[in-house]
Amino acid sequence: MASLYGAYRSLPLSASIPLTIALIIAFAIAQNVVSQLWFPDRKRPPVVFHVFPWIGSTVQYGMDPYKFFAECRAKHGDCFTFILLGTPHTVYLGAKGNNFILNGKHSDLNAEDIYGKLTTPVFGNGVIYDCPNEKLMDQKRLVKEAFTTKALRSYIPKFVKEVEDYVRTSPNFKGQSGTCNITEALAEITIYTATVSLQGNEVRSKFDDTFATLYRHLDDGFQPINFVAPWLPLPQNRRRDRARQVMEDLYIDIIRRRRHRANAGDQQQHDEEEESDMIAALMDGQYKDGTTLSDLHVARLMIAMLMAGQHNTAASGAWVLLNLAHRPELVEELWQEQLAVLGPGAELTLEGLESLALNKQVMKETLRLHSPIHSILRAVTAPMPVPGTDWAVPRGHVVLASPGFMARSEEVFPRPMVWDPHRWDGGAGEEDKEEGEVTGPTVNYGFGVMSKSVTSPYLPFGAGRHRCVGEKFAYVQLGATLATLVRLLKMEQVDPEADVPATDYSVCSFLLSIQYLFAPFERALANERCSHTVDVLEADEPCFDQVASPVKEKWVFLVRLR
Questions:
Q1: For residue 440, what pLDDT is reported?
Q2: Residue 492 phi/psi, 5° resolution?
Q3: The domain containing residue 139 runs over which residues?
Q4: Residue 35 in domain
C-alpha cells in the first residue's frame, strides 16, 4: 500500500487529478451497487437497479417512460422507486396508485414544491403555485366561472371563425397544393382560439404581433433546467422575465381601460362579449374571504391561463390529424356524421357539437393513446405508508402517477396501441362517462364538486385537487376545431407504408412534445377532390412551439371548399 501511495504521490497533477476523479467515481459506483444488491431497505418500495448514482434511471425513463414503466412493473410490480437526477421517484401504477397519489392528502404531498420553481418566474408571484394551496383552489374556482355553459356556447362561433380564417389566410394553405407543418398549424390555431375566447378581443387583436413575441419568450422559460435552477442568468430566462413584466403591464392597461369604461357608464364602447371572457370573470371575482383580486393578480392569472394547456391541446390536435391521415375513411365518416346530424350548411353550435358522437370519440381515443402528460409528480412532505404493504414512502421523495400507462393496458383496452375511435361505440363503461359528470363519492377542494373516484382508466385531465379546471373548455375547443377542419379538409396519408410517427420523449417542451411532422395538402374545388399528391417541402422555424428536428413524413391534406 505504501508503494502504491508513493507512486500516486509521484504522479504529475495532469495524471493525479483525473486518476483521483476516476477513483471517486469508481468508489461511488461500487458503493451504490453493493447497497442495492446486499443492503436493500425492506421498509421502502424496491429500487430499480442502476449503476451510476445520481444519474440512476434518468436515461431509460427519458427515452420512453411507458416502456420503462412496463419493464419495471414486470420485475417489481405496480410500486417501485427509481432515481431521476439524484431524487428518488416512487412510481405507483394502476387505479390504486392513482388513488394513492392523486387523492393524497395535501398534508402528505403537494405539487407546488415540484412545479413552483418552473412556473412562478413565468406566471409571477402570488398566483398558482406561489400561494397557499387553499388560495390556489380559490383561484381555480374563479377561473372555472369562465367555463359556464353560457360561456362555452358563446365560444363556438369564435372557434369556427378562427379556424376558417386560418385556413383561408395562412401561407400553409396557399394555392391548390402544398405542404403544412401539422404541429405548427395546430399550435397557432390553438393559441388563436384560446385567446379570442378566454383572453378577449383586445388580446387577440394584439396576438399577431406584440403578444405573440411575448408568448414565445415566456414559453422559453419552460426549460428542464428551470426545474432545478430557474434563477440562472441564461438568455432565455432574461427574456422570460422581461416578457412577463411587459405582459403584466399590457393586461393591467386592458383591465384599467375596462374599469374606466364601466365607471363612465359608456355602453357604446362596452363590448358585450367581454362579459364571457376570463378577464371579466376575474375582474368581478372575489376570494372566499371577501377580498377582491388586485389588477396585478388578475394580470398574472391571465398569463397563467394563456400558457396553461396550450402545448397539451396543440399536441393532442396534431395527434388527431396524424391518426386521421392514416384512416381517411374516418375523415369521410366524420363529415357524413355532420351532414346526418347537423344538416348541410348548418352552423356549429354547442348543442350540435355535443351531438357529434364520432367527433367526440376521435378526441377521446387520441387522448387515451396520446395522453398529453405521461407523468404526474407530487413532492412527499410526510411519510406515506403504502396500503397493503410494509413500505412507506419517506419525506423528500417524489411520487409519480401515470394514468396514461393504465390507458395503454391490455387489461383494460383490447389492442391498446391501436388507434380505434370506434372502441367507444355505445359507451365503454366507467371510462366513457361524460366529461364533468359526477357519480359516486364526491369531493369539493374549493372549486366545485367533483367525483372522488380515480378508478377510471381514462383520466387525460388528471384527478384530485389538481385536476384540470378547463377540461370542458378543452373538449369544446378541440372538438370545434376538429369539426371545422373536417368541413374544410380531407386528410390522407401519401405513403401507404408509413406508420404514425412515434412520440419523441427525448425532447421536452414543458413536459412533453412531439416531433416536427409535415403534411402535404391539396386544395379541392367545390364538390371536387384532387387525386394527385405533392412532395414534402421544408418548413421554417415554428413560431409557437419548440419541438424536435424535422422528420420528413408525407401526409396529404385535401381542402374542401364547401
A1: 61
A2: -150, 135
A3: 133-360+460-560
A4: no
CA 536, CA 551: separation in Å to the nearest integer? 10
- Residues 6+ away with beta carbon under 8 Å from 145: 281, 285
Asked if residues 445 and 144 have their Cβ atoms less than 8 Å apart, the reply is no
E strands along 277-418, which residues?
Answer: 376-380, 384-385, 392-393, 398-401
* 3-class DSSP assignment, residue 447: coil
Give every residue of the chain whose pLDDT is below 50, as ranges. Answer: 429-432, 434-436, 508-562
Q: 468 a known binding residue?
A: yes
For position 312, which CATH number holds? 1.10.630.10
Residue 353, in any domain of the structure = yes
Number of domains in the chain: 1
Rounded Cα–Cα distance for residues 147 and 144 (Å): 5
Which residues have C-beta within 8 Å of that of residue 476, sequence separation ≥ 6?
152, 155, 156, 159, 350, 353
The H or E element that residue 194 is part of is helix 182-194
Give the count of beta carbons closer than 10 Å to the beta carbon of residue 420.
18
Whether 524 and 558 have beta carbons less than 8 Å apart is answered as: yes
What's the distance, CA 86 to chain centroid? 25
Phi, psi of 173, deg, nearest 5: -120, 25
Note the residue count of the chain: 562
Q: Give the global pTM.
A: 0.85
Beta strands in 196-264 (DSSP E): none
User: Which cell numbers hold the place of 385?
Assistant: 405508508
Residue 442, SS3?
strand
Measuring CA to CA, which residue among 272, 298, 261 is closest to residue 283? Answer: 298
Helix count (H) and strand count (E) of the chain?
A: 20, 14
Comparing CA positions, the residue from 209, 186, 212, 175 lying closest to residue 537 is: 175
In contact, 469 and 136? CB cutoff 8 Å? no
Strands 384-385 and 516-524: unpaired
